[in-house]
């Protein structure tokens, strides 16, 4: 029997999965694309909690499928759509153009971060 130990989670119509690897934003995005999905992108509390479950399981911060757009301090989903749900950590985002990617902390809140750091890859399908 194949045991995935909660490495695949369901949230609404989304399936979330992690390969446990920590890579930079571009590599995480590429891995998800090659697997036929995209980076995990919470659009509501239920999805955020499902992603958090994987973050807690690995005890690693993870990149989310959200990036800063052309306007400083304005973040969008990687498909270009405006955010309809956010869970920023207190005083975040604060990178003012220097931190274009978004990571999830182990408490489920978000922080803007540089894109070249190694974070957990979590994909959605």
UniProtKB/TrEMBL annotation:
GO terms for molecular function: carbohydrate binding; growth factor activity. SUPFAM superfamilies: C-type lectin-like. GO terms for biological process: ossification. It is found in: Secreted. Keywords: Disulfide bond, Lectin, Secreted, Signal. One of its GO terms (cellular component) is extracellular space. Coiled coil: none annotated. It comes from the Eukaryota. The keyword Signal applies. Residues 25-124 form the C-type lectin domain. Its main location: secreted. PANTHER family: C-TYPE LECTIN DOMAIN FAMILY 11 MEMBER A (PTHR22799:SF1), TETRANECTIN-RELATED (PTHR22799). This is SFTPA protein. The lineage of its organism: Eukaryota, Metazoa, Chordata, Craniata, Vertebrata.
